[in-house]
Amino acid sequence: MTDTLTRRGLLASAAALPVALAAPRVSAQARMRLVIIGGGFGGASAARFARDTFPDVDVTLIERSRSFTTCPYGNLVLGGMRKIEEITFTYDGLARRGVRVVHDEAVAVDPAAKTVRLRNGGPVAYDRLVMSPGIDLRWGAIEGYTEGAAERMPHGWAPYLQPITVLERQLRAMPDGGVFVMAIPDNPFRCPPGPYERISMVAHYFKQAKPRAKILALDAKNGFSKQPLFQEAWEELYPGMIEWRGASNDGRVVRVDPSAMTLRTEFGDTVKADVANVIPPQMAGKIARDTGLANQTGWCPVKPQTFESALVPGIHVIGDASIAAPMPKSGFVASTHAKQAVAAAVALHRGQTPPDPVYFNTCYSHVGTDYGISIVGVFRAEGDRFIEVPNSGGISPRNATMSRERKEEYRRLEAHYADGWYEALTRQMFGLS
Amino acid sequence: MPSTLARLGRMAALAATAALLAGLPAAANDQARIALVTGGCVGCHGGDGSGGHGIPKIAQTMNRADFVAMMKAFRENKNNPTVMNRIARGYTDEEFALMAIRWAKPE
What is the rounded distance in angstroms from the CA atom of residue A207 to the CA atom of residue A199? Predict the structure, then answer.
């Protein structure tokens, strides 16, 4: 590591030398204009980090909405543990800290002219652009699952398209003894443990309010994040309530009929639901695709050291829209993409070598009262790919590896830490502390 | 411990040299690197390292050597950790030293 840093230092010096000698560029030139599109976990974190770390850079955040409801903790609204107001934030804190917040929609980017065209306001010029566009849903990828169908069969997976409260109301109105059916997509998708935390939180609600209700989860894959921890917890907390069916057990949903409230699987099983939650396949947000940042997969390839697009120079694509496996598409990891992308963008603009990245993810899931579990990961760039640092990270220990007392303490601690994690992360990104 | 600090000193000197040649104040590059390496810490412990909801305060609670020793102990599953053992195994000794600059008592 010392050797790497030494080489880095020398490289940085060598790269910077001609620029420094040619002109006192940094001091004499206009301030760097860093523009960020999208005010979610990636974009808001980028704005906060840029404002704090680079006082001599102008930071503009373009975000169409005046408030942001987080995906994380949305499942706790379903579980009755949080109210939607408690997971909704404004951009006032970032504005107070000196971020220029523009509430408008970015409708086009001209990478040659380095400008962003807005729906209402005039064009915004940038020296470097950070794009954190989030996801769009692939309407029609499941036959019959259109925007209209999503009113009867909510997705609850993209708060700017549909608030989680639509699904919440349907669950509250469901009769005891009813069946809640979920359709869960194949990888890659936003928030890998999210559907399973949702199963848990709905079960938590049913256990209190509708003890005869059942949950059927139809999954397009054969395994999922934190699977042994979730399944052990379901046995323990909600015995007999939850059935999870993977792809090899005909779990893949291929068609839905919202008027009949039925879901049809790959091999022809038809399932009737009282409430249906369909989480469809996804892709990078529209502005990224329109700008030519996505490849044939619908997601955006990036350079692992900088998150600069592999397809269009000068634009850094972060968060769920990027192709960054083995990192998960999570809010926390988007916040670490953001910091590296901002530091790299500033370095590249100044003719310097970007710093070596270290990316980090922590993701807690609530499974029940005082029952939390986690997954963590540390990631680095290696050539043209991302790697997870060997022998690091991983999920919380399984029940059998601990004494009963330690296990109860561990799950309780992780539930509390989850609340601290959510609070720290959101307060940071929205400039509240 | 002395070797870590010595390496850190050499690294800081190099970073300062690079920054000087680039026409920047020496502190700017160091500060960015420290901010990046501690980017994971703040996600749970907060931007000021004050913790909350049972997550411990890490700012200004120990000296640098003790901070680095604590992180190394987490790597060995010591101190009854929940996530810190899994996290610490992903970082290098140099990165622990950079974290200590941000979180430990000033020296």
Answer: 12
